[in-house]
Amino acid sequence: MRLLSHYIRMNCRRIVDFGSSGASGFTASVSEAGSATVIELRLDAADGQLIGSLQIPAARTEAAKYQTKVTGVGGVHDLYLVFNGKPASKLFKLHSWRFNQ
Fold first, then answer.
1. CA distance 36 to 58
2. pLDDT digits (tens, 9 = 90+) for 46-61
């Protein structure tokens, strides 16, 4: 099955500063997932270094928080959230996101 991919570049200039200690986790609040989806967390380009993947299950109507581990990140980068889901399927509503140490 072919997945549909879209992405959001989170900042126009390199202003996502993970610091010298980096991040260890990522949390997102989402709702109304039409099908199972994956959010890839990538640095500096939509096909850049993959630092984590967040699995979003289908059919949650109320907002729910999902978490994943993050590895290999430190310093200042552009952040891309790459969304992979089924073609012709509603992805989800993204309410908030954050990195955790």
1. 5
2. 899 999 999 999 866 7
DSSP 3-state of 17 = strand
- What pLDDT digit, counting tens, does each position of 29-43 carry? 999 888 888 999 999
Q: Which amino acid is at 9?
A: R
Rg (CA), the chain: 13
Q: Are 92 and 33 in contact (CB under 8 A)?
A: yes
Q: Cα separation of 98 and 101, whole Å? A: 10
Residue, of 2 and 23, whose pLDDT is higher: 23
